[in-house]
Amino acid sequence: MKSSLCYSLIVLSAWILVFGCSIPPAANTSIESPSKTIQIDFGLTDSGAPFYLVTHKGKIVIDSSSMGFSFKHQPDLLTGFQITEAHFSSFKETWEKPWGEQRKVINHYNEMIVELQEKESPNRKLTIHFKAFDDGVGFRYQFPDQEGVDSLRITDEHSIFNLTGDHTTWWQPGDWDIYEHLYSETKFTEINALAKRNDPNLAQTYIPENAVNTPVTMRDKDGLHLSFHEANLTDYAGMTLKIDPDNLSMSSELVGSGRTDYKVKRALPFYTPWRTIQITEDAAGLIESNLIVNLNEPNRLGNISWFKPMKYAGIWWELHLGKTSWGYAGGNHGATTENAKRYIDFAAANNIGGVLIEGWNTGWERWIGFEDREGVFDFVTPYPDYDLNEVVRYATEKGVEIIMHHETSAAPRTYEQQLDTAYALMNRLGIHTVKTGYVGKIIPQGEYHHGQWMVNHYRKVLETAADYEVAINAHEPIKATGIRRTLPNAISREGLRGQEFNAWASDGGNPPEHLPTVAYTRMLAGPIDYTPGIFNIKLSPYKDNNQVHTTLAQQLALYVVIYSPIQMVADLPESYQGQPGFQFIRDVGVDWEQSKVLSGEVGDYVTIAREEKETGNWFLGSITDENERLVAIDFSFLDSSTEYEATIYTDGEDAHWDENPTSINIDTTTIDKDTKREFILAPGGGLAISLKPIVN
What we know:
- This protein has 696 residues and is α+β, with helices and mostly antiparallel strands.
- It is 14% helix and 35% strand.
- The radius of gyration is 25 Å and the shape is globular.
């Protein structure tokens, strides 16, 4: 490694190590990851075009791939470079998540920073940062101050990813407006995003070309797993990846705007987001990777003890079932004071920390299906049958927190006008969590959910909320890119085809392979508000043509498998009455000391165990696709000196996601670290286990 050419050691703490050096200009340069399993090579072609190449254990993973930009009012920045300087350093730290899949995160990488300058006038400069981790790589661009230029208008970013084979790929289309498509599993050369246009189940969608959204996950013929995404998406357009099947190549394709003829406008100097490639030898390694959060800046908010990870119930599923409605007109309003108190009582009795109430505020009569939606929603004024102050008082008395709901109907300017007023109200009432929504096409026309204009809106909401001690659970969001490390009030988000599609989608809902795919794709980006816990699988008597495509045991397992610091107990309170399986939901944790991915394959199944903070309790979840599956569990992850009382929730012998979804067995036994067991998961089924230390 080039950093061995010079040596300077600075001990920042017992856990932080940094060393670095600079070397004279050269035509090619490289770095290895700390364990030397991954290497990044960087160089310039004869024409001065920058390129990079990535290897894993000597095998090429990303072949020589070019890098550069196109601008408005400036020539392309693609060739004619020389390396003026290269800097090398290493870094290691352990930092703590205030909430998350684990308490401690190791951040260990080697870094190469290459400074480039055009050989000829105007002699523009570009710096490229590379970081090599043992679980992947990241690179980003830095635009320093330039003589005579104060800002740039980027029309295209040309970051290329040249593959080495026709990999099996799990993808969804590069939609500029939504991530709520089902994932497809195909060979790379068979990706056809344009076939996903005009989905009748989506409130907004725009797929301009054959591109995919990130994270996009692949497996090569030798079993190596790759996932492509981005980290620290700040003041920039979201990135899709344009597919070139003939050349086995992808290129960064930024989300644009119909209001401008450029995709990004930035004042100099600035950094782009990181372009990330997670590289692991098995599927489990993708989930255990912390590469995305490690490529974000440290916590800027400090102590956020005002937010507590929790389970929550609420007036939500009954709206999707059609039992009640969001709007006040029509006499079937769900968000009444009386109904809210019913959910509060249910939460207080069952170890559920919060209650979400949708449809409480005025505006729902014109929230969707209307072109002129600006100025419709009022985020401080309740309907006449909802006494906000009384509901909050009652919830506080019962030890339950109200979760606010702000649906913007994709009219962000209206929301921004009321942000301070709405969050000041929440702060006064002691409400610290809000679910935001952006259903519909963005107003003003020409903007898309994933373009720079909306990226900046989502960030403004997050930063304003932090000022008022409010945490954000965003729906119809911009993708998660690890900003939860920097702003840990970014607690969860939707950004996928969620549970609600099971209640009303015309295609019947989410198939059994959906969540075993999501765990290795969308979940790599960050926490998911998927809203599990549906016990009335067939949705009777509300929906005749829809159902949930899992067994009851899988609904329990989702509380462990699909991570979020807030987990909804989504079904109607009456659906849990007399159900012994509900005890798992009462017991299961939401904030974790550590997590272990025990086994799995993308799109097929996944098994995860998590240790709850403070208690020493462990919870295990395993889910499968449409196939029955034998899952072997080795409990060696448990503490060596402890026996555990295990309550095991398994699919019944006759269980099947469609034919008999509620068949479940519940057994209690003693388990320790030497225990090995096998369990049968039914088609669309699952396994959930709670493990509590036995105190002698």
